[in-house]
């Protein structure tokens, strides 16, 4: 058992009856660089995320200068093509921060619903869940991932959702949970997905 898995196991035992702790991995979808070992680990769920476009860590403030002179329509198309590919790989349960590319407020000219259309279709076909991820509220964009426009398309396609703090510190766990729940409700959602050993279960909220 890996050290991380051992820590989770120990915490599970410590908090038994108080917190239902799950084990998950957020995995970067990097075509050509995938280490399949993590995909085979025994866990409750796998999140598939895109943080790199052609080896550029676009959500890293250190490399923000690379947005200069970029054609944002082309970049968004490329990004959502990677999401589509990730969904079609069939390796993951949940799509991480669907529209992360907006993090530094660089937007496309074309309607985001058109740019994301094929990716959303692939997510639906792959029977994946999309997270309502509040980490965007802690970033320059100041908005939840996915944006309201995308949530509208997601709800129309009847794609299930789940909630994510994407916490990087203990005090961020559960932050903005009232806001994300209200947002989900405003798009007609009343249940969210959870996973136990890669099996999905829907819970009313
Ligand atoms: Fe991420």
Task: Provide a compact summary of the structure.
This protein is an alpha/beta fold.
Ligand inventory reads: fe (ii) ion
Instruction: Quote the beta fraction.
Output: 15-25%
Count of discrete alpha- or pi-helical segments spanning 4 or more residues: 6
Evaluate the radius of gyration.
17 Å
Could you give me the name of the CATH homologous superfamily?
Metal-dependent hydrolases
- CATH architecture title: Alpha-Beta Barrel
Overall mean confidence score, pLDDT = 96
The spatial strand order of the largest sheet comes to: 1-2-5-6-7
Count of DSSP strands: 9
Sketch the topology as an H/E string, one letter per element.
Answer: HEEEEHEHHEHEHEE
The first-level CATH class is given as: Alpha Beta
Terminal residue distance: 34 Å
Fold-level CATH name: TIM Barrel
Structural class: alpha/beta
Q: What is the multimeric organization of the chains shown?
A: single chain
How helical, in percent, are the residues? 25-40%
Query: In the residues, how many domains can be counted?
Result: 1
Largest sheet: 5 strands, parallel
Describe this protein's structure.
- This protein is an alpha/beta fold.
- It has helices at residues 3-14, 72-89, 112-115, 117-125, 148-156, 177-186; strands at 24-28, 45-49, 52-53, 56-57, 94-95, 129-133, 161-164, 191-196, 199-204.
- It has a single domain (22-204), classed as Alpha-Beta Barrel (TIM Barrel), CATH 3.20.20.140.
- It is 30% helix and 18% strand.
- The strands form three sheets. A five-stranded parallel sheet has the order 1-2-5-6-7. A two-stranded antiparallel sheet has the order 3-4. It has a two-stranded antiparallel ribbon with strand order 8-9.
- Strand 8 (191-196) and strand 9 form a beta hairpin.
- The protein starts with a helix and ends with a strand.
- The mean pLDDT is 96.
């Amino acid at each position: 058992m890996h050290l991380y898995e051992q820590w989770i196991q120990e915490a599970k035992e410590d908090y038994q009856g108080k917190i239902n702790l799950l084990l998950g991995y957020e995995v970067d979808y990097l075509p050509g660089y995938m280490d399949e070992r993590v995909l085979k680990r025994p866990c409750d769920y796998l999140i598939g995320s895109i943080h790199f476009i052609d080896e550029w860590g676009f959500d890293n403030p250190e490399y923000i200068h690379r947005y200069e002179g970029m054609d944002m329509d082309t970049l968004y198309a490329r990004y959502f093509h990677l999401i589509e590919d990730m969904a079609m790989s069939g390796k993951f349960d949940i799509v991480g921060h669907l529209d992360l590319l907006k993090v530094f407020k660089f937007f496309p000219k074309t309607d985001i619903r058109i740019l994301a259309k094929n990716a959303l279709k692939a997510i639906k076909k792959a029977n994946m869940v999309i997270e309502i991820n509040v980490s965007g509220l802690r970033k320059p964009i100041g908005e939840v991932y996915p944006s309201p426009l995308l949530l509208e398309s997601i709800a129309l396609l009847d794609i299930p959702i789940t909630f994510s703090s994407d916490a990087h510190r203990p005090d961020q766990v559960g932050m903005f949970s009232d806001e994300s729940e209200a947002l989900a409700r405003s798009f007609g959602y009343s249940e969210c997905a959870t996973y136990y050993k890669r099996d999905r279960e829907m819970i009313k909220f």
